[in-house]
Amino acid sequence: MKNQASSSQKTSKVGLISLFNRFISFEKGSTFLPPFSFGVWIFFLAGLIPSLIVGWIIYPMVLYSKQPQPMNFNHALHLNPEIVDGIEGDTETERCLSCHAFREDGTFAGIPKLDKCMECHDDPESPLGETPEEQEFLTKYVAEEREIPWLSYYRQPDCVYFSHIAHVKMGDQDCETCHGDHGKTEKLPAYKVNRMTGYSIDIWGRNIAGYKTNTWDRMKMDDCAECHTENDLEENNACFTCHK
Amino acid sequence: MEQKQGDTYRYGMVIDLDKCTGCGTCMIACAAENNVSVRPDQTDKERTITWMKLYKITNGKEFPNTEVSYFPRPCMHCEEDGRGHHQPSCVSVCVATATKLDHNTGIVSQIYTRCIGCRYCQAACPYGARYFNWWDTYFPKGKGLERYLSPEISPRMRGVVEKCTFCHHRLMRAKTQAYAEVRTDLEEHEYTTACAEACPVQAITFGDLNNPEHKVSQMIKSPYAFRLLERLNTKPKVYYISTKDWVRKLADNYLPGEFKPVTRATG
Predict the structure, then answer these.
(1) Residue A206 near residue B73 (C-beta atoms within 8 A)
(2) Position A215 pLDDT exceeds 50
(3) Is B161 part of the contact surface with chain A (CB cutoff 8 Å)?
(4) Nearest alpha carbon to residue A164 among A155, A175, A153
(5) Digit-coded pLDDT (tens) for B75-121
(6) Which of A10, A56, A193, B219 is spaced 20 to 30 A from B7 at the CA atom?
(7) Which residues does chain A have within 8 Å of residue B184's beta carbon, measured at their own beta carbons?
């Protein structure tokens, strides 16, 4: 019985090999060619190229919905000491903090409220009202005492705790490290939000493949951990440091 | 966070059972503080979530010798799993690394977005301190409960395990305040849990067990101090104090004649 079983296994193995040999035998001068002809390649590429375009270009475009900010804000103009003299500070970070301030309890106030704008702009001689957008600011928000519904580019998911003061004050990090040259732009970029997750593209990363060239390209957990590890602050990679 | 070498915190809690009146304020304060979900039928105690749970224990004797004590039970934030490994038993069984013991604070974390809901930790926990979310977080509309939701706590989703975190967000809040005042060390009163703060008879004391100046590290030296199921060697950081022998006896499984009552009249 044993011998029979082993012999039947052998024949099946030999059968398989001969079948395989028949498929690769076209090298040995036979006229039989497997179906890899020119026409097949055309069809293959005709399927592959559009699917690559759909996957790498069209899908990322469809994935994010663009929402314009309620009005434009010129960061470069406000940070230019020749035009605006109310914003003081020795370093760039300090100048950012004069509007994007810390509260007394150390929490970060984020996008300034209308009160902050009015600290300088309540003066009737302030250079406002030249462009239609500035007119809109005065009539739509200041006159009605309505907050500007800014869209936040850097809103983290609900499960994330981030302490700005730990990084800016204790860690001596510049705003630019995570926020890039946002403070030098003249026009606010459109707010792009992921249709599926609801997160901003600045959190998820601009590159769909996950490549990152600057520190501010992405704000995911691995990016935080990468910086902590590089600066020998591995104890800050404990889960409850950033999660809540 | 700047810390001197070896200067780590070990936050812990001491609950004086002689003071506890069983009012249940700690349970309510905890649930309100931590966005703990409620159920339409809160009487179904197998499914409700109580990070801090109040047990009623009796000495089992007939009237007039009956004695009753109340026993609040948060997460014990164990330091070992009972077999000498420096991680609690819930951490060593977690397949998703969703729960971890932070050796800098001594707090056992629970990350809801990482949890896959296998409930191994729930089975491994000797204290029953972990709870499973059978439904999404629910707050009845129109009853005003949603107004109590705290933005410092992320609400839990269906299918994850949650537990007491020693009000970890309060530690972050205290740290942020300290950073604003350009210092890294925390005072004793700056970080305390919601249950300890709410307790009307101050039966719950919270502090750093590593700091000899903190009240908790002095209280645990009392001969009446004990821990729940201490002989499992899980090294919980929640201590209890009771002068009643039967309460201390109930806190562990003793063989007949094995329990030794405190004979010294100190503490």
Answers:
(1) no
(2) yes
(3) no
(4) A175
(5) 999 999 988 899 999 999 999 999 999 989 999 999 999 999 999 99
(6) B219
(7) 170
Torsion of CA A213, A159, B14, B208, to 10 degrees: 20
Q: Which residues of B touch A106 (CB under 8 A)?
A: 176-181
Helix, coil or strand: residue B73: strand
Looking at residue A5, its pLDDT comes to: 46
Domain boundaries, chain B: 20-250
ipTM over the 0.90 cut-off: no
Assign residue B166 a region: left if phi > 0, alpha if psi is -120 to 50, beta otherwise? left
Is the CB of residue B190 less than 8 Å away from at least one CB of chain A?
no
| Contact indicator for B76, B234 with CB cutoff of 8 Å | yes
Q: How far apart are CA A80 and CA B144, in angstroms?
A: 48
Chain A nearest C-alpha distance from B262 (Å) = 39
Digit-coded pLDDT (tens) for A112-169: 998 888 887 876 666 666 677 777 788 888 888 889 999 999 999 999 999 999 999 9
- Whether chain A has a CB inside 8 Å of the CB on B202: the answer is no
**Stated pTM of the model:** 0.84
Contacts of A127 (CB under 8 A, 6+ apart): none
| E strands present in chain A | 64-67, 191-194
Pinpoint the alpha helices (H) of A54-124.
59-63, 75-78, 92-97, 114-121
Q: What is the mean pLDDT of chain B?
A: 90
B20-250 folds as Alpha-Beta Plaits (3.30.70)
Among the listed residues A170, A171, A184, A207, the one whose alpha carbon sits nearest the alpha carbon of residue A63: A207
